[in-house]
Amino acid sequence: MPIIAVGATTSRYFSIIKEMNLLYSGDIIVIARGSIFVQAVPIGGSLQENTVDKVKHVEGVKAAVPMLCVIGLSTYKYSLAQLVPLNVTIGIPLGNWSFLVGTTPLRPGGSWPSTDSSQEEVVIGTYLAQRYSLIVNSTIRTKNHELRVAGILDTPSAILTRTIIMPLEVAQEIHGYNMLINMIVVEPQEGITEKELVDRIEEEIGGVKALTDDERNEIIEPILRDVEAWNLGIRSVLFSISMLIVMIVATTNVSERKIEFATLDAIGAPKSCILRMVIIETGLIGLFGCVGGILLGVVAAVLMISFYASVPVSFVLPDLFVIVTPTMMLGTLLSVVVLSCIAGVIPAMVAARISKTEALR
Amino acid sequence: MKTLIVKAVELTRIYHLGASVIVAVNKANLEIEEATFVSIMGPSGSGKTTLLNLIGLCDHPTSGKVFFKRKDTSLLTEKERRKIRLLNIGFVFQTFNLLPTLTALENVELPMALAGIPSNVQRERATQLLETVNLGNRLRHRPKELSAGEMQRVAVARALANDPFLILADEPTGELDSEMGAEIVKLIWDLCRKRKTTVIVVTHDEYITRISDINYRISDGSIKRG
Question: Hey, what's the torsion of the CAs at A87, A91, A96, A99, to 10 degrees?
């Protein structure tokens, strides 16, 4: 039984992150919905910063914001097992924060970096703040820069908790991307469809690939479908195995209690009573097994996420009911109990057919 | 004139074990009236338990008939036979056959629950029966917490739960020492005299034959009044 809950609670979450990381070579960032995402071809390459000016001149573009996204992967020997990068640096021109993080709030006491370019200010995610004991106004020293922490993002998002958002120029200097960026986020003007704009951008500017929301989803969808199919397959196999196990347990239970059922039959208990008794018992076996399985599964999910994403357990806990939703738990519980009851039908029939004369000898 | 409770006419039960044919009960005839204490004695394998199963409607005869209060049981449906077993017959088994997960009180309540008696009446009657068999202080004990004699007393109380007019006891002293066995037999005898219940006991125990109103002896499936 425990296997079911582990499968149901963790595999989807991990598989999606893993597949997305494989597809984008780790370059996963959060882009505000409704924006167009322009990236160099092949994906992972870089663009001249002035490409953004060309994009701005394309008819139908309301705003275009250049970004530099650099993934910091662990050099730790077990980094291959790591599904989420250690940190993500995102450079974005001052004042354009909302393009990246939408309405993500900051922790109390923090603010977005000022628009004064002489101030080298950054916003960091909660994981980085905790890992490096950083608070608002702390200083991060790196490559001749002293970056003041202006704010800390108040979000449990696996990516954003380990993100450093800083002015584009600072990011370029720190990571050696002189006048280079690796993506542009475009906001279309009203009245123009994303598709039209994407076609125009790709036509007018060579060497770039523009993706709408739908196109981004189209890239991911087959992978998600595969993941879902795999999960469905795994779940079906696990459910079948668990049904079989429940049936074996119930059959063993019945065969060990032959005299009990024969006695019930002898003293006049209706067959329906014996059938009901065994089916309820089997349902209870499923119920208790499933409750235990869900508890073990949740603990396993928390530990696995903590291990693979290199975050403390305390980071995962607030998000627990997002990963393992109460609906999912209830659904698993109900389906296991129903399946267990079904699995109990054959043992119940065996119990009801036990010959009282044989068993009472 | 006493009412005839059980009548067996040319009762025969044959088993087929592979190629061999075993005649467990061979044309048995007996008549048992109400409030009679009957013992059936015989060596192992003589067909005692088979005869008891046939009388108790737990088994179907190969030929012959069992009449229950002059009613031909061969004409009854399985549901009707089950109902007679539940309401009119009490069983006492050699190995007690109490349900291990239930307390003494619940074991006695069980036949009443199956008969649809209200739970408050069940509780009251079960408590009374257990007090009658001197187990008033063992109501909440499970079978594993009871001695063999106590378990058999619970089984006797359970057999009496639905106030049956026939008690069938299959070697009720078989698992008990002679002193405890005698105590249990005396208990059954007393209760049945008071309640005017008919008792049929299958036994090896000579003491039971001494206190019985009628003795039958069975050998190779054939029964004779002894």
Answer: -50
Please count the other Cβ atoms lying within 10 Å of the Cβ belonging to residue B4: 15
B45-82: per-residue pLDDT in tens? Answer: 888 999 999 999 999 999 999 999 889 999 999 999 99
- What is the least distance, in Å, from the CA of A277 to any CA of chain B? 13
Instruction: Say if residues A189 and A201 touch (Cβ distance below 8 Å).
Output: no
Whether residue A269 lies within 8 A of chain B, CB to CB, comes out as yes
Amino acid at A115: T
Q: Residue B25 pairs with which residues in a beta bridge?
A: B13
Nearest CA in chain A to B113: A269
CB < 8 Å to A270, chain B: 79, 82, 114
Contact criterion met (CB < 8 Å) for A267 and B95:
no
The structure tokens listed for B21 are 């044919």
With cut-offs at 50, 70 and 90, classify the pLDDT of residue B153.
very high
Hey, is B213 helix, strand or coil? coil
pLDDT tens-digit map of B20-52? 888 999 999 999 999 999 999 988 888 899 999
**Percent of chain A scoring above 90 in pLDDT:** 14
- Sorted by where each begins, the domain ranges of chain A are 35-211, 230-359
Say which residue the tokens 């790709």 belong to.
A202
Domain range B34-60+75-225, its CATH number among 2.60.40.10, 3.40.462.20, 3.40.50.1580, 3.40.50.300: 3.40.50.300
> Chain A residue with minimal CA distance to B48?
A361
**Which residues, listed in sequence order, are joined to residue B72 by a DSSP beta bridge?**
B67
Give Cα separations from A116 to A94, A120, A147 (angstroms): 8, 8, 13
Among A267, A270, A360, beta carbon nearest to B111: A267
Contact B82 A268 (CB under 8 A): yes
Which pLDDT tens digit goes with each residue over A42-95? 445 677 888 888 888 888 888 888 888 787 655 444 444 444 556 778 888 887
Cβ distance of A267 and B85 shorter than 8 Å:
yes
- Contact, B55 vs B6, CB < 8 A? yes
